[in-house]
Amino acid sequence: MRTSVISMPPPEAIWIASIPPLAAGGLVHAIIDTPRGSRSKYKFDKASGLFKLSRILPAGMHFPCDFWFIPGTTGEDGDALDIALLSEESGIVGCLMTVRLLGMLRARQIDKRISVRNDRFLAVPVTPVNSPAQKDLRDIATTQLDDLERFFVTYNRLQGRRFIPERRDGAKAAYRALRQGMN
């Protein structure tokens, strides 16, 4: 008698796959993969259902903000859509949060002559007791956005890629782009 083995994704992968991109009240679900201040970059590994160390940044370099992804989405680069969370507090890897999109950094990433869009959505956390004042990209200091762009340019250069910021768009454009990236 032959038995067949059914391959099932790990429970963690099923859990993440079941989270819709959009939350109630026009907010967005996001899952942290790399905390602010960390030199370690993590990525969600679908095969194991766990977060896996992707790389360690050089000494003196760290992520200037929490780096998140939006579940149930796919960007032109094949990965989930990326969010840079603009907050004074740092989260933990795997944390699910509800955020308000403020806008996005439109960018092109070039790796071995292959050019793809690899935008960065910008967001702030929202909880039942914490409602941020920021509603749009205009509410963020230009110097903070400049620093964030420089970080992504340098971060990609260290990996042998080019990251070319193209423009900054506000909340309405970010929500339109999110809908395009929803699976």
Salient structural properties:
183 residues, alpha+beta, Inorganic Pyrophosphatase, 5-stranded mixed barrel, two-stranded antiparallel ribbon
What's this model, at a glance?
The chain has three helices and nine strands, in the order H-E-E-E-E-E-E-E-E-H-E-H. With 183 residues, the chain is of the alpha+beta class.
Biggest sheet architecture: 5 strands, mixed, barrel
Proportion of residues in helical segments: 10-25%
Oligomer: single chain
Corresponding CATH architecture: Alpha-Beta Complex
* CATH class bucket: Alpha Beta
Mean pLDDT across the residues is 91
Radius of gyration: 17 Å
Q: Low-confidence spans: pLDDT under 50, at least 5 residues?
A: none
The arrangement of helices and strands along the chain is HEEEEEEEEHEH
CATH superfamily: Inorganic pyrophosphatase
What's the count of strands? 9
Please give the alpha-carbon distance between the first and last residues: 40 Å
- As a percent range, the share of strand residues is 35-45%
Helix/strand class: alpha+beta
Count up the domains. 1
Number of DSSP helical runs:
3
